[in-house]
Specification:
5 strands, 56% helix, 5-stranded parallel sheet, 13% strand
Length: 186
Amino acid sequence: MNPAKILIIEDEEIVRETLAENVKEKGFLVESAENAASALEMIKRFHYDILLVDYRLPDMNGLALIKEALTISPDSVPIVITGYSSVETAVDAMRMGAYDYLLKPVDIEALVTEITTILKERDIFRRGKERLHDSVINSLLPINDMDPVVLASKDSLRAFGKEGIVKKVFSIPGMFFRKIIEFYWG
C-alpha cells in the first residue's frame, strides 16, 4: 500500500516544520501550508489522505477551511489541531467533518496511531463497498421474457434484445435492496 499523503496547515513555522519532520519520519508523505489560501490551492491540485488543520489561521478559521476542503476533496480526512481548546469548538469541528480534535503540543505517537486507524477504517470501508458492488453486479442475471415488467412493455424493450440493459435496469431496485440486506445482516 502507498504511504498516506498528509497536508499540514499551520501558520506557526516551528510547529509546522516540527510536525512535518516527525510525521515524515513515521513513513508518511508530508506537505505543508502556512495559510488556508495556499492549502486550498494545494488541495485543488493534489489528493491528500489526511489534513492536519490548525484551528486558528491568519486568513481563515480552520473549520471554514475544512468545510471548503471537503467540498474539493470529500475523501480527505481532516484532524483539527489547536492550542485553544473548548468543548464547543471540538463539537463544531466534528460537525464540520473533522475526525478528531487534538491539542498542541501534538503527541506524535498518538497522531500516528490515529492516522493508521483512519487508513485502516477507510480501507475496510472501501473493501466492503467493492464487495457490495461486485455482489450486485454479479447478480444481474438475464431476465425471463415472462417477467411482468417485460410483458407490460415488451414492444419497447424488444429492440434491446433478450439480455438488454433496460430489462436489467428494471430488475435492479428490488434485487439491490436484497443484496444490501444480505451483505449487512447476512
